[in-house]
Amino acid sequence: MVNHDHQRLNQIMLSLRQVQYECVAEQKCHNQMLQIMRNWRCPDQIEQWVAQDATLDQALIRACRRLVRQFLMKRANEKSPSGLTYNQLVKALDSRYTCMEDFCRHIVDPLGRDAETLALDALPQQLGIGLRMWILDRRDEVYRLSKQFHLDVSLFERLIHNGADHVTLLQQRRMHPKISRLIKPYYPQLRDHSSTERYPEIRGINARSYFMTHFHFEDDEGESHSHLNTFEANFVSALCAHLVSCGYEESQITVLSPYLGQVRLLKKRIQRDPTTQQIAVTAVDNFQGEENDIIVISLVRSNRARQMGFLAVENRINVALTRARHGIFIVGNAVFPSAALDVSQLQLCHIGKLSRPSIFVLLITC
């Protein structure tokens, strides 16, 4: 028995060390995550516990608890550069109970061989596998297959539609009530926990939820298969700088867009300002399951043909609207998201004709 525990302990330690090395070498990791992993001394502490505790059993239990707190909660997502190592680590834990949050593709890899009980937690209307954002041509074979086999339906929705036992939670503890009302068309029975009403007021802006509308057309695609809107990118970067100047930490702000082309443009614009370089910018699809105090969304689409593209997908709008705790600010042409977003629930601000010096004349309170 002691021998078996010692082998499992060694497996965990080796996996942890390998993850540390990979994370430090992986430049695409967020700086915050790199800092956590660089300062982590879990393997050393496991060895210390082995020396101090009376049995390897106790050391293993304590090591696994720390592992769950400091590793699994930080690394168990699809963006991990060390997915293979993560799977090996889960198997080494030999856990009988598994709880999985915001899964949408499959649950085979994260399950250990000894798993007996599985609890799944996700939005009923979340994004499925879908298509990669650069595959937009309806003639594409991948697009045809995804529609034919309903790959745009998440695993959670698939289970519910096929009669799997499930319970719907009717109380939310993330969003301020002025934000949660945006998703009442999706979840009419949703209630707000009393703690959400005690969130602090937004610094520097006189409302928690704004739709900043304009009529500037999106850029010509050129050789890109994605879409981008330079006007929105410039405005969003200025908005982020304003929020930081009013006292928000960069880590409290996340910028989202449904298009990878716009994500790349936003990163370039935001990183020009040294005060906003650490603000996270990512695609809506990649932020599923995450949250932050302030969410800024660039919708991009604005064209003469009134083509909505990704904005017509209700699940994508649903995910975008449910990420913010304290404040949400949407930048786009108000005509376009009307099919999937009730603009009447937002403060409306027309920014299309504002000059740069007066860009926040309707918003600034500090």
TrEMBL record:
Domain of life: Eukaryota
Name of the protein in question: NFX1-type zinc finger-containing protein 1
Originating species: Cladocopium goreaui
DNA2/NAM7 helicase-like C-terminal domain span: 151-334
Example of a GO biological process term: regulatory ncRNA-mediated heterochromatin formation
Cellular component, GO annotation: chromosome; nuclear RNA-directed RNA polymerase complex
Database matches in Pfam families: AAA_12
GO MF entries: ATP binding; helicase activity; hydrolase activity
Keywords: ATP-binding, Helicase, Hydrolase, Nucleotide-binding
Family matches, as PANTHER family: DNA2/NAM7 HELICASE FAMILY (PTHR10887), NFX1-TYPE ZINC FINGER-CONTAINING PROTEIN 1 (PTHR10887:SF341)
Zinc-finger as UniProt keyword: no
